[in-house]
Amino acid sequence: MSGSKYLTFLFSLFLLTDCSYIGEEERLIYVKPEPAKRVVLLEDFTGQRCVNCPLGTEVIEELQKTYGETAIIAVGIHGGPLGFAGNAKFVGLATDAGDKYFDHWGLEYQPVGLVDRHGAVKYTDWAAAVREELAKPAPLELKVDATQDTEHISIMVEAHGTDGLVEGKLQVWLLEDSVMAMQMMPDGSVNTEYVHNHVLRATVNGLWGDDFIVDEGEWKEQQLTFQPDEAWNPAHLSIVAFVYNANGVLQAAKGRVKMRE
User: Between 53-67 and 126-134, two packed helices, what is the crossing angle to 10 degrees?
Assistant: First the structure.
């Protein structure tokens, strides 16, 4: 072998040997995702014939003023014995889903709330329950994007696992704000121009949602479509998505429904 060929051979061998060895200090190290910020879901079981339910609404407004609407997601679930389905004179907001949820959780009075689904909580105790939940870490991040065309709402839910394997259900709901409808008031009067917000209008993916799994470090997307009722104001619709299991609600997110341009 000539001198030049021998030098070329040694150089190639050096490259192969050098690339095949990675020192301990140079190996890739797994970096755990940043902890996700907890978003609390407050399911407000309410009714238009419930005289104390406006007091519960005031508590929600104060909580959202304190922590922000992105940190506290409230859902007004109309149903139960004090719910009102409507008649020829007044608009009703009670739904079959609201009645089924009320019965499923074995609730006995209104207003009552589920804060991340850790048992029934009186509205006077919601603030303490919310503070406790906000202090907990969340094992995933959620993001909701929704757009509406002439007939359908296209929904995209994005999830990012940040702490361990998450197994549960993904629930998606449609809400409407700024709904003017009758409400009985604490003083016994009837307010026919009461404005109801975050009203549960429909369950997008069934009463209990879909099976859902996301691992730490994994990004996952789920697409859904829904046809809203023509009576609902598109400008006031929003989507709430949350992941839950036997340990309660693990994370929640909310997004306004935008009209497609």
Answer: 30
